[in-house]
């Protein structure tokens, strides 16, 4: 073939045939191995119930572990997501459940403006129990740790068990912990769009409500707990209890509302000694002395070893002129804890009111022996 020459003597290349859109797509497809991989994965992604770009990204994007949470903002809530515990070993097994949880948490945070920060730490061994999870959460400065177990530890075969620990910065408060069963993991698509999301929603509303109630932000707690009252009524007993406690003690001391919410907690869980005890306190604050005594009686019937309930009833009995009943409650406290200095102080005060000054003097001495810095006892002993 004779070469083509331009007027300046330069050889020209033959013009290639014009390519239509299909030819251009094929060339682009061949030059992009990532696109080839994605198209090849479509049947597999469909099998796993992947429906949107976020799900695809979760499956193909390598895990980038953020070493720590961003600087905590006032409204942020830090969630540490750890690998599920597969069978008997604690080696990491990618079931995509963790990614589904992470996606759901971020969706909730954006839609409800919850201020959640979520880290999925694949470098961390899955915790074997609640204590391990709590220690990891404290070390990572998390507010909540979520992980799970698969199969036999969830009582029913082929189930996943979602577990969580709420990490409180106030060491004087017990760590809230819990678990819930998830549907059979044999059908991953159903788990990702169904029960898993329901459980995650409940855990988030519960922990955020709990956090707000412990900080005395009762109206904020009520907003979170209302989601549980409406959608998870079978699990609402603890939410009613904590909202009642917030209104009674930590918040605006709305005792009438506290009685209402604590009564709802008792309706759902008639065996809750805590609910009866605290409703007794709220009733006392509203002036319902007989109702308070009745609630303390029921709380003691359900839990005869709770010192604080005997203490509450002893105070009410003393104020009502029932010194014999008050001393009986105080004696029970000392039977449960012989070194409970308040009991000796209170018994000394009641005995002094009965005219038994030497017996009162001896009780005050005992209280000071147990607690030499108990200033109120010195005042009472001086009076005796």
How would you describe this structure in keywords?
single chain; 384 residues; alpha/beta; two-stranded antiparallel sheet; 17 helices
Describe this structure in words.
By secondary structure, the protein is of the alpha/beta class. The chain is 57% helix and 10% strand. A five-stranded mixed sheet has the order 4-3-5-6-7, with helices on both faces. Strands 1-2 form a two-stranded antiparallel sheet.
Q: Helical proportion?
A: 55-70%
Q: Overall mean pLDDT score? A: 77
Sheet with most strands: strand arrangement? 4-3-5-6-7
Reading the helices and strands in chain order gives: EEHHHEHEHEEEHHHHHHHHHHHH
Largest sheet descriptor: 5 strands, mixed
Q: How many DSSP-defined strands? A: 7
Shape: elongated
Low-confidence stretches: 1-18, 50-66, 182-193
End-to-end CA span:
127 Å
* Quaternary status: single chain
- Output the radius of gyration: 32 Å
Q: Structural class of the secondary structure composition?
A: alpha/beta
SS strand fraction: 5-15%
Secondary-structure topology with pairs:
Blueprint: E1 4-5, E2 11-12, H1 21-31, H2 33-47, H3 53-60, E3 77-81, H4 97-112, E4 116-120, H5 130-139, E5 144-150, E6 159-166, E7 176-184, H6 188-193, H7 195-214, H8 218-231, H9 237-250, H10 255-268, H11 273-286, H12 289-302, H13 307-319, H14 323-336, H15 341-353, H16 357-370, H17 375-383
Parallel strand pairs: 3-4, 3-5
Antiparallel strand pairs: 1-2, 5-6, 6-7
């Amino acid at each position: 073939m004779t070469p083509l020459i331009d007027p300046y003597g330069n050889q020209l290349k033959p013009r290639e045939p014009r390519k239509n859109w299909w030819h251009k797509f094929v060339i682009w497809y061949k030059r992009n191995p990532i696109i080839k991989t994605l198209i090849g994965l479509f049947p597999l992604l469909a099998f796993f119930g992947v429906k949107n770009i976020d799900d695809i990204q979760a499956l193909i994007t390598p895990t980038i572990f953020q070493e720590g949470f961003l600087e905590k903002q006032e409204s942020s809530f830090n969630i540490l997501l750890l690998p599920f515990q597969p069978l008997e070993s604690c080696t990491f097994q990618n079931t995509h459940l963790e990614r589904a949880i992470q996606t759901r948490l971020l969706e909730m945070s954006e839609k409800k403006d919850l201020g959640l920060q979520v880290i999925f730490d694949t470098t961390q061994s899955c915790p074997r129990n609640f204590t391990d999870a709590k220690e990891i959460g404290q070390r990572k400065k998390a507010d909540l740790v979520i992980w799970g177990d698969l199969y036999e530890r969830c009582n029913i075969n082929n189930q996943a068990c979602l577990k969580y620990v709420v990490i409180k910065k106030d060491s004087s408060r017990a760590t809230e912990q819990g678990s819930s069963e998830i549907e059979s993991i044999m059908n991953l698509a159903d788990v990702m769009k169904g029960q898993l999301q329901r459980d995650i929603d409940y855990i988030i509303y519960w922990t955020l409500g709990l956090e707000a109630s412990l900080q005395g932000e009762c109206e904020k707690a009520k907003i979170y707990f209302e989601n549980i009252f409406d959608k998870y009524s079978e699990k609402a007993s603890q939410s009613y209890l904590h909202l009642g406690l917030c209104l009674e003690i930590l918040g605006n001391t709305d005792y009438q509302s506290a009685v209402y919410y604590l009564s709802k907690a008792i309706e759902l869980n008639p065996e809750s000694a805590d609910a009866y005890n605290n409703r007794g306190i709220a009733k006392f604050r509203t002036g319902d002395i007989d109702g308070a005594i009745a609630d303390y009686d029921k709380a003691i019937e359900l839990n005869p070893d709770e010192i604080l309930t005997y203490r509450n009833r002893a105070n009410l009995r003393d104020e009502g002129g029932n010194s014999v009943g008050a001393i009986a409650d105080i004696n029970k406290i000392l039977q449960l804890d012989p070194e409970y200095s308040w009991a000796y102080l209170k018994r000394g005060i009641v005995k002094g009111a009965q005219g038994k000054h030497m017996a009162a003097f001896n009780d005050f001495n005992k209280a000071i022996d147990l607690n030499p810095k108990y200033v109120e006892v010195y005042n009472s002993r001086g009076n005796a």
